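Worked example 2:
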Amino acid sequence: MLESRSIIHIDDFDFNNGQPIKGRYFIILDENEETSLVLSVVTSQNYIPDSLFKHGCINEPELNIHSYVLTNTTEIGENGFKFSKDSFIYIQSSTVYEQDLSKLLKVYPEESIDLKDKMIQAEYEDLIYCVYKSKRISKKIKARMTTILERIQ
């Protein structure tokens, strides 16, 4: 169930960092045999200026913006999934990170994880490249994005 390109929703997700506990969407960017996943957090909070707003990658270092926008009019899932609101992945180490699958499943059993759809391949590749270009992710995540890009080219 939890594999690359999966769009999932977890009710009552707790980051354990003081953020409110609430339902959260995630897109799984990568998984490996060591049971870790790379997750990207999706939010409906918009911090993108109207002049830059578009679907896809927005990289404006001079404005301190590196984000991936998922507009509510664009189907991103193989079965037609699209977010009901414009949604955003603000690419930084706190929103694109590794998660040990066994630890995740101890807190959130598989039956509490709602698989919404699988991301369309072209959209997934655009997202991976956008994350790869970020200077705000860890070297470990950058290395995993490099491996994915090599695999899909």
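The first helix runs from residue 101 to 107. The CA atoms of residues 13 and 148 lie 27 Å apart.
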